[in-house]
Amino acid sequence: KQWYQRRVRGLNNRRSDYFLKENENITGADSLTTDAISIAIATKENLYAQRGNLSGISGKMGTIAKKLPLIGGLMNKINLRSRRDSIIIGSVITGCLILMFMFS
Question: pTM score > 0.85 for this model?
Answer without folding.
Answer: no
